Amino acid sequence: MGLFHKRNPKINSRFRELFDNGVNETESEFLDSMNEVVRMVEYDTEYTTNDKLKIYELMSQLCNCSSSDRHKFARKLKRIL
Known about the structure:
- The protein is mainly α.
- Helix content is 69%, strand content 0%.
- It starts with 8 loop residues before the first helix and ends with a helix.
- The mean pLDDT is 87.
């Protein structure tokens, strides 16, 4: 990631929106909603393969943890997205 590397702000804002809505969702509903962000990252050409792998790893950890631990992984994802 370069110092002045620009990302698609739509992905970050959509992630924040879905994450905020996910507070009241079950784990399976949360996973389904996060799949939208995964698809957006997959088709975005601004992310390198390395960046995508880091994002997928954090998304996996986010979706497989308890709801109380989600904020820890969400903070990391917000920085990358």
